[in-house]
Please model this.
Amino acid sequence: MKTAKLYVTFIYVLIFLAISAGSFAQDKDSKESKTPEDRAKITSDKMKTSLNLSDEQYTKIYNLNLQKMKDAKEFRESESKLRESREKSFTEYKSSMKTILTDEQMKNMKKMHGDRKFKKGHHRKHHHKK
Model:
């Protein structure tokens, strides 16, 4: 009797893992096919909740993110863009953010970016040990 329950539980775990693996594969595919508008909305929505943005700030941030996503797509598609152009675009983005967000929101955003960079760096370091 206990063995039968153990087998049933094992089968449920296998089914769950199979479904989970399938959903991860779909997330990766859908991420690559998102438009700049989709990416800007997702990024802006995350910022709205984590930084507690007002509606006015959200609209400005969305427009700024949309332009950033369009520029990034253009940079990826065109190999003739120079590095200085990218840096200038990024500097303008940061300056615009400083005019839109409060000091506290900027501090929180920098913390969020710092946490993300740490995680990415840690992942890369671990990945290259192979």
User: Anything to note?
Assistant: The chain has five helices and no strands. Helices lie at 2-32, 36-51, 55-77, 83-100, 103-127. The radius of gyration is 21 Å.
